[in-house]
Write a structure and sequence with these properties.
174 residues, mainly beta, four-stranded parallel beta sheet, eight-stranded parallel beta sheet, 14 strands
Length: 174
């Protein structure tokens, strides 16, 4: 059960936060990317409700991105915690490499929207597609209660694009 996840260390993100804050519940960060960049294996990034116009690049293994649904069980947080890519590329990119794969990636209770990726000659060579969520060179990925909608791509993977990835579970999502 996702709700039984033991949170060891968390970074909090809120629309009223500041990236110069500590990331605590009382002094949250403003951006998800800032929190994710500070997260290490086993950490949770807890995102308060709101619309976050960001294009995230997650480069650390065993990081958990979640709305407050994770701690409360309140499903209203799923639709009210939105990451909007603002048509500037993939909304969330999890990208390891051949020598250092990402593993144990978790996303729960979020709405992913507004991703747009236009395929060009360079992306054909680098496998760089996917506009909602792009997952590449990863193992053990869980998407739970994630709403992926209104993402577009001129090519493959408008909502979700997965390459060279093992053990992905998508549950209770649309």
């Amino acid at each position: 059960n996702i709700l039984s996840k033991k949170i060891t260390r968390s970074f909090h993100v809120s629309k009223t936060g500041s990236d110069s804050n500590s990331g605590s519940a009382e002094n949250p960060f403003l951006t998800i990317q800032h929190a994710a960049d500070r997260a290490t294996a086993g950490d949770t990034v807890l995102i308060a409700e709101g619309v976050y116009k960001e294009n995230l690049s997650i480069e650390n293994s065993s990081v958990y991105l979640a709305s407050l649904y994770l701690t409360t069980g309140d499903t209203s947080y799923i639709k009210s915690t939105i990451i909007d890519g603002d048509s500037l590329g993939s909304v969330i990119t999890f990208k390891g490499n051949y020598n250092e794969r990402l593993y144990n990636l978790f996303v729960t209770g979020l709405t992913i929207t507004g991703g747009h990726y236009t395929e060009d000659e360079m992306s054909l060579m680098t496998n760089n597609d996917g506009s909602g969520i792009l997952i590449e060179e990863a193992d053990s990925v869980l998407l739970d209660r994630v709403h992926i909608n209104n993402n577009t791509k001129n090519g493959d993977g408008g909502g979700l694009s997965i390459h060279q990835t093992n053990y992905i579970s998508i549950i209770n999502s649309n």
